[in-house]
Structures are given as C-alpha cells and as structure tokens.
Amino acid sequence: MNPTNELFQAIVNEMTEGVIFLDAEDRIAYLNPAAERIRRVSAAKFIGRPIHDLHPARTYAAVDELLNRLKEGRAASRHRVIQAQGRYFDNTYTAVRGAAGDYRGTLLVSRDITEKKDLSEENLQLKKILARPFERSALIAESPAIKAALAMVEAVAPLDSTVLLTGESGTGKELFVERIHSLSPRRSGPLINVNCAALPEHLVESELFGHVKGAFTGAVGAHPGRFLQAQGGTLFLDEVGDLPLAAQAKLLRVLQERSVQAVGGKGETPVDTRIVAATNRDLEEDVRRGRFRADLYFRLNVIPIHIPPLRRRPEDILPLAEHFLIHFARRMSKPTPRLSAEARSHLLAYDFPGNVRQLKHAMERAVALGDGDVIEIADLPREFGGTVPEPVGEVEVGDLKSALLACEERCLIAALRRHGGRRTETARALGISRKALWEKLQRFGLSEKLP
Question: Looking at domain 395-449, which CATH architecture does it have?
C-alpha cells in the first residue's frame, strides 16, 4: 500500500468523528471505527448497502433531497442535526468531485454535539431567568401543575373570598400568598404573616386579637393584634392546622362576626381584612379525629388551592435551581455558575422530601462551597450524591455534638409519633413551649414528617 494512503487510513481510523463515504449511487463504500460506534453497526455488514439502511423510513425524503442538491451542484455541503441513541450529532455532507468536476460521491462526517447542545439549552434557560424581573416572590412555573395553581390564584385574587392553601412544607405557599395579595384590590394595604405553629399557646389569643394594658402579667402596654394590623390588607395564617382547639373556636367567631375583642378589653373592633390560610396537614383527617373544628375548616376552605410537591412537577426543578444559583451568586458577589450534566441528572432523579426549600438550600450550599464556574455532583449535599466537608480540629467535640443532635432528633420523632403529631401535647410532654418545639422541628426538617 502507498505510504501516503496508509497514513490517511491511520488518521481516519483514529478520528473521534464518524466518517462515511457514499459512492455515486449513494451506497456505503467506507465506514471508519467511530462511525461504527456512533451508528452501532458493523462496517463489514453495511459496505455496499444504500445509505437509507442507516436511516429510519421517515427521513428518506429529506436525505434524498440533501444528496440531490449535492449531486446537482446546488450546494457544496450541507449540515443536518440528528438524534441517535439518546445523543445529538451534527452531520456534515460534502460532495466529492473529480478533477473534471464529475460527482464521485458524498463524504459524511458525524460529530457528537450532545454536550454543546446541553450547554446551549442551559444558556437559553439562564437567559430566560435573567430576563425576568428578579423579585423575592418570583414564581417559576414550567410544569402544568403549577401553571394551573397560578391560574387559580389569578382568578381568585381580585375577590375577597377566603383562600386555603394546602401542600407539603417547603412548597412555597408564602409566595402564593404574596401573589394573591399583590393582584388583589388590597395590594396597597399591609400583608401580615402569622406562623400559627410558632405562637406560644398561652399567647395565641393575644397575638391574633390583641390585648389591653394590664390584661395579664407582662402586658405592660396595649397590643393591637395581627387582625387589626392587617386592616385593609391581607392576613396570612400559616400552619393554621396547628392552632390549639381553644384558639380555633375564637378564630371562628372572629371570622363569623368580622370583629375582634382584645384580651382584657370590653368592646369589639370591626376588622376589614382578607384571610388566606395555609397548612401542610390533612385537615379533613384532623376533623375526623377531632383535632380540628369542622365548622372552622368549612369557613376557611372556601377556595382551596393545592400546591403540588416538587417531585410531582419535575419540569420546575432545573429552572428553580438555576434561579437560586443566580440569586445566591449575586448575594455572595460571585460569578453565576452553571450545573454540570451529572448534577442536573442527580437533581432530576431526586424526590425532594423538603421540596423547593430543600432545593434552595442545596443551591446556596453549592454556590458557597463551589470554587469553579460549574456545579459538580461533589458540590451538592450528601443526599444528592454529593459530599460533606470533613471535620477538622478536635474531631471528638464535633462527634459529641453530632451525637447529641441525633439523639434530640430521635427524641422529637418518638414524641411526635406517641402523640399522633399533635404539637401542643408533644410540647407539653417534652416540657417545652410550642414555639420551642416548632423551632426544633424547623431545625431538623421534621415538619413534613408529622404523622
């Protein structure tokens, strides 16, 4: 063999691009090893066969048109992107002609552009996110489930009806409340948030309805209460399912009478506020078990809106992740990183028991600890397949602290199960306040694990 031909043969055999040569009759005359790998075919079996044998029937017309353009001289080369075996390839077809200009065949070169295409799609998504006004209450809605919930929000926002938001902890119910308020006629009024689970039991009535000076020990001054603070606006009762039964009865009366009586006060004050409530509990089940008043449930459940968990709307995972990457990169004065293909795959495969809040914290950690412009799997928390920093210094102290925290978490879980998830009884049995219990549940991420 001619040494020059041997050199060319060696070069083509080592190329990572797939090389196929078609003769003037559109039959396969040569395939290099890369083409065999890409097409998953054997050269020995395909040499001499028509190019159509490498393509599905639906593409025959497009391939014929492309080859005819090359033969007739209407184009010197053509590009065509195809998808095969889950990857993308940029195919370049080039007419090969003799010295007299006669058509000898077509050279087909296939380049794997999967990573380039993925990066392009990531950049487009980032541009879409950057084009949005960056607001704290920005809601990412790519999934049909969230789009349906937002459509319901926009429909009921102009009304004054009571709304009950349901969904697991961490799904972003507070953002839906902000949306309702901002689209309502009350948007110029206050939006007052009340976390019912965090209120000490003996102060629930005072916090909601107010108190007069001297009403009880420690009441050194008058307090208007959250209902009056929300006059002309919206009152958000978060975790309303955790209110004690006694407080539920008084809340029902206020909703019916539209007036409040401060603790220690004699007269009543009319209230003009819209109520939006939220819970991560199954209130219908709580009603059946006597944990929640049926009449209050029906009073709150005028317009129910369910916010699905993140695992039920995978279309939102990557847009949300990229939104949080931009947010935390700006806050930390860092360049905005992008997610690697492996990190994206791990995020999409995870079931997110902590929902959007868990994803947000994961992206904050990734930005804080990442030292490059790409978020890799190792930058993600351990539950996603990432790593955690090794303890340094006095390891024994760190181990003891971890052991104590683990013991405290097990104690909380056992107490919650023993008392059927009832926080008031759980707090009483543990000898702590409801507020202290709520803070511990938040610390350990146990809100969504209640029975």
Answer: Orthogonal Bundle (1.10)
